[in-house]
Amino acid sequence: MIKIYAPASIGNINVGFDILGAAIYPIDKSLLGDCITIKKSKQFTLKTIGQFSHELPTDITENIVWKCWLYFCKKIKKDISVSIILEKNMPIGSGLGSSACSVVATLVGLNNFLNHPINDNELLILMGKLESLISGTIHYDNVAPCYLGGIQLIINEKKYITQKIPHCNDWFWIIAWPGININTMESRNLLPKKYTKKICIDHSRHIASFIHASHTMQYDLAAQVMKDVIAEPYRTILMPQFNNIKQKIMNIGAMSFGISGSGPSIFAICDNINIAIKIEKKINEEYIVNKNGFVKICKIDNIGTKIIG
Ligand SMILES: Nc1ncnc2c1ncn2[C@@H]1O[C@H](COP(=O)(O)OP(=O)(O)O)[C@@H](O)[C@H]1O
Ligand SMILES: N[C@@H](CCOP(=O)(O)O)C(=O)O
């Protein structure tokens, strides 16, 4: 038997659409990720439990965990019989890498359970493929940080898929899921097919400055250039409260604020716990729309997916 935990992630982190992502953990040590348990079995079975299991497709073959098993068997050219339990702790369509948590936990679990028949790079490529079945296009900015931890820069050039970049350990990442769902594919379809030269130059300047500032520990500069000119202007149509709460959170003292992944979750960054607590309170008062929503003060999870049983 093996049990795997795969953490939530913030795709894009404002400045790196599809090419930057961060794994996170709540400082209150609550669970913010999916768990997968795998045991030997005479035939494949999948059982779903957990707070958000009711949001999963009723047809087992529509569950991304089933597809992970299918693709993994094809990859190793063996039909393996296992029983899998998915503990769905992540809300679906949340913008916190919910599908990535299930994909990474399942593929890491299967690979460990069968004594590593495929290597890390092949596993990552498989993760990207499974994610694309859900979002319509391959993007590694959830699966890479979820799997490997930290803030991951997606390179995706021949054998180089992703590499970790330095981050500020003093930063608090306050995340909030309002309690409603936005489908990643729907959110991606909102984006324009083309951008102006000015936008391209501004975006290149922001991302290059962010990577440079991260490597030279100029963290105020890093926060200052964490701007989203690619997705935020088009996605906030699905998030009517976004601009209002963004202004209020920046006024409290956030260093940066943006959409987590494809939304509706949001994130704010600050380097002071007292400001983080004020931000958490304000978001709770003005952005959470029902009892399912939540706000959590987090830090970067530098490990990523881990074996917990
Ligand atoms: N195990 C799973 N976890 C999350 N989503 C799943 C899973 N299996 C299938 N899905 C489907 O994937 C879609 C949600 O993916 P997505 O919109 O990317 O959510 P998120 O932004 O939280 O990753 C839904 O249509 C959901 O039914
Ligand atoms: N780069 C992707 C990230 C999607 O993150 P998710 O948590 O919403 O699945 C995008 O912005 O579409």
Automatic annotation (TrEMBL):
A Pfam entry, by short name: GHMP_kinases_C
Catalytic activity: L-homoserine + ATP = O-phospho-L-homoserine + ADP + H(+)
EC number(s) given by UniProt: 2.7.1.39
Domain GHMP kinase N-terminal: 63-150
Source taxon at top rank: Bacteria
Domain GHMP kinase C-terminal: 229-287
Residues that coordinate or bind ATP: 91-101
Biological processes per GO annotation: threonine biosynthetic process
InterPro entries: GHMP_kinase_C_dom, GHMP_kinase_C_sf, GHMP_kinase_N_dom, GHMP_knse_ATP-bd_CS, Homoserine_kinase, Ribosomal_Su5_D2-typ_SF, Ribsml_uS5_D2-typ_fold_subgr
MF term (GO), any: ATP binding
Entry keyword set: Amino-acid biosynthesis, ATP-binding, Cytoplasm, Kinase, Nucleotide-binding, Threonine biosynthesis, Transferase
Subcellular location: Cytoplasm
Pathway it works in: Amino-acid biosynthesis; L-threonine biosynthesis; L-threonine from L-aspartate: step 4/5
Gene Ontology CC terms, in alphabetical order: cytoplasm
Chief localisation class: cytoplasm
Family the UniProt entry places it in: Belongs to the GHMP kinase family. Homoserine kinase subfamily.
Record's function text: Catalyzes the ATP-dependent phosphorylation of L-homoserine to L-homoserine phosphate.
HAMAP family: Homoser_kinase (MF_00384)
Protein name, UniProt field: Homoserine kinase
Source organism of the structure: Buchnera aphidicola (Thelaxes californica)
